[in-house]
Design goal:
The structure is a single chain. By secondary structure, the chain is mostly beta strands. Helices cover 2% and strands 64% of the residues. Strands 9, 10, 11, 12, 13, 14, 15, 16, 17, 18, 19, 20 and 21 form a 13-stranded parallel beta sheet that branches. The two termini are 36 Å apart.
């Protein structure tokens, strides 16, 4: 997506359709039909009342966001499907997405790139049946929400972590693998409401799992860390 705007902060109550801004300039920087990312879901902006007030097309379904909360407004790209490809030797990310909703990746083979897949400021993401081999780092997701990650993983991350998660919420990781990473197997910061089941980490040079800070409500079931250079779980 594009045309992002994040200046200032906002507040909105559960069940309300009115977003109130502080130090925002929405009248000149935001358009109707742009979307605002609130608690991991994109809401369509139906009207702009002023620099500090806008209306969303459906009542806010999340827990109340108190004054001072961060937000993202953008013209969002939707309904992207990428399947059955091999991608090699990208100097940056083999795939990078931002300001996106409803993205589907399946049966991808990504090799020898700086980063396998990088995603920012997005929601409703599906990653299935994917192998990342000999990239500098594997997956890197920041401010991504409602993700399903299944039967995918990395082998031989040459510099960084198998997967790095920052402010990722409400997501499920099943039958995943992160093998022989030069950094951590899985690195998490400010994440919440995540479930890991049947996830294995082997021979990470750093930690197997590193919960850096700000994490809560994360479940590990039938998971393992073996042969890591530092802690299995930190």
């Amino acid at each position: 997506g594009d045309r992002a705007y994040t200046t200032g902060t906002i507040s909105i109550s559960n069940g309300s359709s009115t977003v109130t801004g502080s130090s925002t300039s929405w009248a000149t920087n935001v358009s109707t039909n742009d979307r605002i990312l609130l608690r991991g879901q994109w809401y369509i902006i139906s009207a702009i009342g002023s620099d500090t007030s806008l209306t969303i097309s459906a009542p806010f379904g999340g827990l109340t966001l108190a004054a001072g909360s961060s937000y993202t407004i953008a013209r969002v790209i939707k309904d992207v499907k990428i399947t059955d490809l091999t991608i090699k030797a990208s100097n940056l990310s083999a795939i990078r997405f931002q300001y996106a909703q409803e993205i589907f990746f399946k049966d991808l083979d990504i090799q020898t790139s700086a980063t396998g897949i990088e995603g920012d400021d997005s929601s409703n993401i599906q990653i299935n049946e994917m192998d990342l081999v000999a990239n500098n780092s594997g997956f890197d997701f920041n401010n991504c929400h409602f993700m399903t990650f299944n039967s995918a993983g990395t082998l031989d991350d040459l510099v960084g972590a198998g997967i790095k998660l920052t402010n990722v919420t409400n997501s499920d990781f099943d039958a995943a693998f992160f093998l022989n990473s030069a950094g951590d197997g899985i690195n998490l910061t400010d994440c919440s409401n995540l479930s890991f089941e049947g996830v294995i980490i082997t021979s990470a040079a750093g930690q197997g799992w590193e919960f850096v800070s700000g994490n809560r409500d994360i479940t590990l079931a039938i998971c393992g860390a073996e042969g890591c250079g530092s802690d299995g779980i930190k």
